[in-house]
Write a structure and sequence with these properties.
163 residues; 15% helix; alpha/beta; Purple Acid Phosphatase, chain A, domain 2; 10 strands; five-stranded mixed beta sheet; 34% strand
């Protein structure tokens, strides 16, 4: 069986007025959506839940309701694979080491914060940042991510979707 997971981060609503329409198009067939923080308002989760169940963590730019409700980090199990989720995962110099320390048994670690897409495996652990769906900053375009997990092979594949 294949599991399709939508990954989004750094939506910063209401600073950015709304989620892009592309979210509904690209996440239409996913069974789960993971938000890697900086949603700013819990209403973002309600919107995404019209597509699929949502698992989220808080980021560093959140309203109080988000801070009170969401954890800083968490792990989920999908298709027998552990996925770690955190907003800030160090920097380019130490992120691989921190991912392994924070989530030693996770097959994938999802993070956000930088608004820079990242999809690279390090010693059997996929590090995945979908970029930002609303704020491209220094990137040429905004982006989302998708993960595909194969139960049979226990393989995970990440894809960055440029908007």
């Amino acid at each position: 069986m294949l599991h399709h997971i939508g990954v989004i981060s750094d939506t910063h609503i209401p600073h950015f007025k709304q989620l892009p329409e592309a979210v509904w198009k690209h996440f239409a067939a996913v069974e789960l959506i993971i938000h890697a923080g900086d949603l700013s308002r819990l209403s973002v989760i309600n919107e995404l839940e019209t597509i699929a169940p949502v698992v989220a963590v808080q980021g560093n730019v959140e309203e109080n309701e988000v801070i009170r409700t969401l954890p800083i980090k968490r792990e989920v199990l999908v298709g027998g694979l552990r996925i770690g989720i955190v907003h800030i995962l160090g920097d380019t110099h130490n992120r691989v080491k921190i991912a392994r320390q924070e989530f030693p048994t996770a097959r994938c670690v999802i993070f956000g914060h930088s608004h820079t897409p990242y999809n690279q495996e390090h010693d059997g652990q996929l590090l995945f940042n979908p970029g930002s769906a609303t704020d491209r900053r220094r990137q040429p375009t905004c982006s989302l991510g998708k993960l595909t997990i194969n139960d049979e092979t226990q393989h995970i594949n990440g894809a960055i979707i440029l908007l």
